[in-house]
Design goal:
Residues 1-63 form the HTH lysR-type domain. By secondary structure, this protein is α/β, with parallel strands linked by helices. It has helices spanning 9-20, 23-30, 34-48, 64-94, 104-109, 111-121, 134-143, 189-193, 205-213, 229-237, 247-256, 285-297; strands at 53-56, 59-62, 97-103, 126-132, 148-151, 160-174, 198-199, 224-225, 243-246, 260-262, 270-278.
Length: 298
């Protein structure tokens, strides 16, 4: 931008002098003192290189050059005001629409309470929620499809800022009729790794966390791959194979006895639940509110 017109505040003040007939009236309209207004006009004159206001004991008025500059500046200042109004409208729209992407565990078992809390803080915010595996969530946040993401995967692509909300335990679960449900000995990592499981698809945070926990051992191919936690639980109840799922997702079934938890020793079956957003951005508005609610609620 040309240096002489990079700052429009002085031109806006000059237009007020032309409209209101003096620096004092223009100063009052802009909410500043008359000395401050005079100083800004003098700074503008120094930048432009000509006298813009003629001062006399009876007051001040635009010089001939000042009138010309004011005519040239008017559409520029008005266009800047339109730009500012447009940006404000966009920000207002952004602040009333929040797009959230979340992994299945967070979307089904944690987010409903967090969104209810957000409703009390920001009742005018409309939230659009999509769920998928952690890899899909990360992609949506990076691409700008989602303002905020919640993931359970241990690995994230570059370009995302992540903050841990809480640690989530993974549970090995079987049907009550499975031989492991009646055994007293605990399961070792090598035995779990060699057992075909009912598993989430690749890209799932649960599956990746299990792969890393059993990294020293070669994992057997899944008996069945499903993209739904509910479907996996149903398959386990039918006795197809064991599964490893987040503790929150199987709490009801464990309490009712439709699934049985089997202890695994010698492996760290924990994973972090995290909130993510683009590293180049600072959270504001409802996105910042929801992230804070999640940090407290988790």
């Amino acid at each position: 931008m040309p240096l002489r017109v990079a700052e429009l505040t002085g031109f806006d003040l000059l237009l007020s002098v032309a409209k209101l007939g003096g620096i004092g009236a223009a100063a009052r309209a802009h909410g500043i003192s008359q000395p401050a207004a005079s100083a800004r006009i003098q700074q503008l004159e120094a930048r432009v290189g000509v006298a813009l206001v003629e001062r006399s004991p009876r007051g001040s008025r635009l010089s001939e050059a000042g009138a010309l500059v004011a005519d040239w500046a008017r559409p520029v200042v008005e266009a800047a005001a339109d730009l500012e109004a447009g940006i404000a409208a966009l920000r207002g729209k952004r602040d009333t629409h929040l797009h959230v992407a979340a992994s299945l565990t967070v979307a089904e078992y944690l987010l409903p309470k967090w969104l209810a809390a957000l409703r009390t803080v920001s009742p005018a915010t409309a939230v659009a929620l999509t769920s998928g595996n952690s890899s899909e969530v990360a992609h949506q946040v990076l691409s700008g499809e989602a303002d905020l993401g919640f993931v359970e995967g241990p690995e994230l692509p570059s370009g995302l800022h992540a903050e841990t909300l809480t640690m989530d335990e993974l549970e090995l679960v079987v049907s009550p009729a499975h031989p492991w449900a009646r055994r007293r000995r605990r399961i070792r990592p090598e035995q779990l790794a060699s057992t075909p499981l009912v598993s989430r698809e690749r890209g799932s945070g649960t599956r990746r966390a299990l792969e890393l926990a059993l990294a020293p051992h070669r994992l057997a191919d899944p008996m069945l791959e499903l993209s739904s936690t509910t479907a996996i639980k149903a398959a386990v109840m039918e006795g197809i194979a064991p599964a490893v799922l987040g503790a929150r997702t199987v709490a009801t079934e464990l309490a009712s006895g439709t699934l049985v938890a089997v202890e695994v020793v010698g492996a760290d079956l924990r994973r972090a639940l995290r909130v993510v957003w683009p590293a180049s951005q600072t959270l504001r508005g409802p996105a910042a509110d929801l992230a804070a609610i999640a940090a407290r609620g988790a």
